[in-house]
Specification:
Keywords: Coiled coil. It comes from Halanaerobium saccharolyticum subsp. saccharolyticum DSM 6643. The chain has about 375 residues and is α/β, with parallel strands linked by helices. It folds into 2 domains: about 290 residues, Isopropylmalate Dehydrogenase, CATH 3.40.718.10; about 55 residues, Alpha-Beta Plaits (2-Layer Sandwich). It is built from 13 helices and 14 strands. The strands form 2 sheets. Strands 1, 2, 3, 4, 5, 6, 7, 8, 9, 10 and 11 form an 11-stranded mixed β-sheet that branches. Strands 12-14-13 form a 3-stranded antiparallel β-sheet, covered by helices on one side. A hairpin with a 2-residue loop joins strand 13 and strand 14. Helix 2 packs across helix 8, helix 4 crosses helix 5 and helix 4 packs across helix 9. The N and C termini lie far apart (about 70 Å).
Length: about 375
């Protein structure tokens, strides 16, 4: 028997032994983890990968961003990560500062302090829609899909009491009456209802808490770092997988402040939604919601907006974009691009080494900067 054959046989026996010990049989999920841009350094990310592999026998971690891969910045790591996902070398990935397309946002997962209950927050980063109420309606569908991929067959839905909550509730009730099946959660407060208060947040009353993305992002930071003073996220599962119509990758988000325990749980989270077929469930949930009239409801909501807001922005003639303008928040990057289109300045969005960027032709850079400054996107 050759040495290579011996190694393969030994590997098979090790896999069988691990499966017997864990009770998990079948292929391990391979989860990519980018190693750049954490405020806690590369070692914290590597520690998280080690924790994940030691605690969860049904996954393995592929570290992206090591010296041998010649990554000079996070954008390079994302390029490698995307290629591996496209080539099916990874089942899912965990990273930060990923530029999701418009219409995709992430479903976070926290451990609530009231009773130690897990709860999904839909959503926590990304832009589901440029209009608040349609965004929260879509967030509901995405949250339900994520919950079902985790094995929660009939997830309960609560709507956080933020601006637009009552209108969201009204239109979700329409969907329910039209045949989209889900269950509303009931607030613990005396007056009940499906609109959730702070008490419901702390207790984790619904399986899925629906909110706008900015509020969801803030909640993730509070839930994960309230015991540490805010600089180290120690509790929870991270900001979760990006979910959206026609989005075909499983990419989960952490933040620069995420510590090893949260990152390890984020890796586990992505392995779980991969096993639970989140992408297929999302397609099914979106189809069911659309069959119940979601698209019509959203069209009606948007038609009530002002003509200026409803006006389609025409894309200018394409140009070679060889300059970058940075310093724009990821949640405003599409609006910034369209503000330039309105001025007949061709622009694209992208991800640079320091975060999201507007890509512009060199000849238009000065004018573009002036317009973006005038519109309040940059200082």
């Amino acid at each position: 028997m050759t040495e290579n054959v011996k190694k393969r046989v030994a590997g098979v026996f090790n896999e069988v032994a691990a499966a017997i010990e864990s009770g998990e049989f079948g292929d391990k999920k391979k989860i990519g983890l980018t190693l750049l841009d954490s405020e806690h350094g590369v070692d914290e990310l590597k520690k998280a990968a080690e924790i994940a592999e030691n605690n969860y026998n049904d996954l393995e971690v592929d570290l992206i961003g090591c010296e041998e891969e010649k990554c000079s910045c996070l954008a390079d790591a994302h390029s490698i990560m995307d290629q591996k996902l496209d080539n099916n070398e990874l089942d899912a990935a965990v990273t930060l500062h990923y530029s999701f397309p418009l219409g995709v946002s992430t479903v976070g997962r926290v451990v609530t302090p009231g009773q130690g209950k897990e709860m999904l927050i839909a959503t926590t980063t990304g832009t589901t829609d440029t209009n608040r109420v349609p965004s929260m309606l879509k967030n509901t569908i995405y949250g339900i899909a994520a919950a079902k991929s985790l094995g929660i067959e009939k997830p309960t839905v609560g709507i956080l009491n933020v601006e637009g909550a009552r209108l969201v509730e009204k239109n979700l009730q329409k969907l329910k009456e039209n045949g989209y099946e889900f269950e509303f959660a009931t607030s613990v407060r005396a007056d009940g209802g499906s609109v959730m208060r702070g008490n419901d947040l702390l207790l984790g009353v619904p399986d899925v808490m629906v909110t706008d993305t900015l509020t969801g992002n803030m909640l993730m930071k509070v839930f994960s770092a309230f015991n540490t003073g805010g600089q180290y996220e120690a509790v929870g599962y991270g900001y979760g997988p990006g979910v959206g119509d026609n989005f075909d990758k499983l990419i989960g988000i952490i933040s620069r402040a995420s510590g090893a325990p949260v990152i390890a749980n984020a890796i586990k989270f992505m392995a779980e939604v991969s096993k639970g077929n989140l992408l297929e469930i999302t397609k099914a949930e979106i189809k069911a919601a659309n069959n119940a009239g979601l698209k019509d409801i959203i069209s009606e909501l948007k038609s009530s907006s002002s003509a200026a807001e409803a006006e389609a922005v025409k894309e200018p003639n394409k140009k070679v974009t060889d300059e970058e303008i940075s310093g724009i928040d990821i949640l405003e990057i599409e609006a910034a691009k369209e503000s330039l289109w309105k001025k007949d300045i061709y622009a694209e969005t992208g991800m640079g080494c320091t975060g999201p960027v507007i890509l512009i032709a060199e000849a238009d850079e000065e004018k573009a900067r002036a317009e973006l400054k005038k519109a309040g996107f940059i200082e």
